[in-house]
UniProtKB/TrEMBL annotation, chains A, B:
Gene3D superfamilies: Aspartate Aminotransferase, domain 1 (3.90.1150.10), Type I PLP-dependent aspartate aminotransferase-like (Major domain) (3.40.640.10). It comes from the Bacteria. Keywords: Aminotransferase, Pyridoxal phosphate, Transferase. Residues 43-382 form the Aminotransferase class I/classII large domain. Signal peptide: none annotated. The lineage of its organism: Bacteria, Bacillati, Bacillota, Clostridia, Peptostreptococcales. InterPro entries: Aminotransferase_I/II_large (IPR004839), Class-I_PLP-dep_aminotransf (IPR050859), PyrdxlP-dep_Trfase (IPR015424), PyrdxlP-dep_Trfase_major (IPR015421), PyrdxlP-dep_Trfase_small (IPR015422). This is 2-aminoadipate transaminase.
Length: 394, 394
């Protein structure tokens, strides 16, 4: 029996990262593949307390259906955090989602018809590419450098291509490259989006994890027309298992996201929203984030030093000022997918970078995560990876 | 500024029920509108214990990313429950979703191209209609009676219409009508779906809440070809706030749902899945369900008795053997939306039935919930509703 699926299913493939993660769950594997936070910093004890508090004080409501938009006090607190990031907004402009991945899916649903073009950084986040593909779009990759997307190239694309429907960017500690956009590029992006009347999806899962250099204003904070849709998440600053992200957008645009959420899953988890809200009442999230940044900075330093020492000189890699990833470029003839097979035989995993280019190519790249592995395994894994690469370059 | 949205957004409207629920949160309102379970039976104390247990024994994993498919021991337990319902299946055929609403959205995404036809019962569940509409489908409503969808009418439709892509049904204590399909109709439906090679979406949120009469086999248990996709949920038997539902389907079909879940939100809540799993280990869900059934039966009895006494004789209503709703049909000239405005003025709410007919009409119908209000408010609310209806019939 073969059922008739929708046309869109032809374009939906398994996320390579997710499939890969399945191979890396063996405890002997040193994995730089996932984008997993350091679990030793998860606030387990704090959650024990707040889960009791929520069930004690508000148990029946915490287990009942609740509004699509999200738990009002939590929306309030998120709006306040956004204000601190320079975005003038209100609780009414926040929708709680199941992680920011859901915000990506909704963005595709709201803006894309088949054959519409999404502008993305080259490379861009694989999960976003997969989410948008479900809406049968095409991708236009705009080249990037250490300051983010190259604006001349973007302008050229906007001038010459029709059917462009939205621009998707990760301006802070980008996934996969670890790079951060300069202020000038951020301003220019908003200008161009205004000129061409396009929505910008600003995906910002890592922005609060800056451990070096100065914070730059979010693109949403530069927007004066309500065309930037900001996707935030607590997955990297609190924990990913509770699946709490948010969309921040203007009234008109947010209303579309709310409508789509109604049909997609009615609402996010009532209990987890209250737990996070209680956590934010009782504990200091910013203090907690300081601990995360300290740990990630030391892991980044250790990883980059070890890479410098053990990777061949031909391999170039980025110096992220925050976030979870560095990005390595190998000599052009090296195929990182083949490399991955060999490194997995030696129990070390990373993500081959080709998956982050929706139109293919760039198989000589790799995304390497430094947040999840303890220090000794970072050193050991990078040494092995260095050996595997050297073997390949012979 | 007006952004360009996708074509599908033209067809997506706010769920009338959700909008209505906002008006009914005032504590003075006696609401028969929502499909809310009785919160006094939520296992609050049990959850306090299992949440501690999960965080104590497995805290870091419970807060980390976890597999798209769901927490393996929970999938195992759901497969066992499905077996008890007569469905031969395995943990590998279960995907955990954010409530069964997410299973509805995914079904639309997987099977529907624009202008494809979905066959539904007339009336059908508003949330499903809204979920499918996002994929720009059309609806063919097949008439129903007390035994479910009328098979002669279905066969006629299948013979004469092209572009039919799936059949969506709620065979047990249907939402909104409260009716249950006969065994013969279930068997015939599977036969016809086999003949026309169509998938059947069997939405079964209430099947375990039968408090009268004999359990009938699920449509999935009759299927021999793997074309029935069963949507289950713990929202009505445990609690809705944790948003745990599931899809049960054949390997090939489930794989599509898993792919779609990856792009839609990566995975469901890691913590809540473990809490439910621990609850099922420590407590007896079936015993808990017995308590729910006992309460709902007594509320149904009370409501139907009060309706018999206080509603004018011209109003007909169903006698549900389980589930959460009864369905009333008023004389044709009465508009239930107008009626609702008047009853809300007197602080009583229900859902006007017209919303459950995707192609319109039938404005003289109402869905009335009996699970959520305590006994005294059921009597008071039905009396007021009776008065408002009598006023309208004058």
């Amino acid at each position: 029996m073969e059922l008739n699926y929708s046309d869109r299913m032809g374009g939906i493939k398994a996320s390579e990262i997710r499939e890969l993660l399945k191979l890396t769950v063996r405890p002997e594997v040193i994995s730089f593949a996932g984008g997993l936070p350091a679990p030793e910093l998860f606030p387990v004890e704090e959650l024990k307390k707040v889960s009791q508090k929520v069930l004690e004080e508000d148990g029946q409501s915490a287990l009942q259906y609740s509004p699509t938009e999200g738990f009002p006090p939590l929306r309030e607190k998120i709006a306040e955090r956004m204000e601190k990031m320079g975005v003038k907004t209100a609780a009414d402009n926040i929708l709680i989602t199941n992680g920011s991945q859901q915000g990506l899916d909704f963005s595709g649903k709201i803006f894309l018809n088949p054959d519409d073009i999404v502008i993305v950084e080259s490379p861009s986040y694989l999960g976003a590419i997969n989410a948008f593909k479900a809406y049968q779009c095409k991708f236009l990759e705009v080249p990037t450098d250490n300051d983010g997307m190259i604006m001349e190239k973007l302008e050229e694309a906007l001038k010459t291509k029709e059917n462009i429907k939205m621009i998707y960017v990760i301006p802070d500690f980008q996934n996969p490259s670890g790079r951060t956009w300069s202020l000038e590029r951020r301003q220019k992006l908003v200008e161009l989006a205004n000129e061409y009347n396009l929505p910008i999806i600003e995906d910002n899962p890592y922005g609060e994890l800056r451990f070096e250099g100065e914070r730059l204003p979010s693109i949403k904070s530069i927007d004066t027309e309500g065309r930037v849709i900001f996707l935030g998440t607590f997955s990297k600053t609190f924990c990913p298992g509770l699946r709490i992200g948010w969309v921040c957008a203007s009234d008109e645009v947010l209303n579309k996201y709310i409508l789509v959420k109604q049909g997609a899953d009615l609402q996010s988890n009532s209990m987890s929203q209250r737990e996070l809200d209680a956590f934010l009442d009782v504990y200091d999230l910013d203090e907690h984030i300081e601990k995360i940044k300290k740990l990630y900075k030391s892991r980044r330093d250790l990883m980059l030093e070890t890479m410098k020492e053990h990777f061949p000189k031909e391999v170039k890699f980025t110096h992220p000022e925050g976030g979870l990833f560095t990005w390595a470029v190998l000599p052009e003839h090296v195929n990182a997918r083949e490399l991955m097979k060999k490194s997995l035989e030696r129990n070390v995993a990373f993500v081959p970078g080709g998956s982050f280019f929706p139109n293919g190519g760039n198989e000589n790249t790799m995304r390497i995560n430094y947040s999840n592995m303890p220090e000794n395994r970072i050193v050991e894994g990078i040494k092995i990876l260095g050996e595997v690469i050297k073997e390949e370059l012979k």
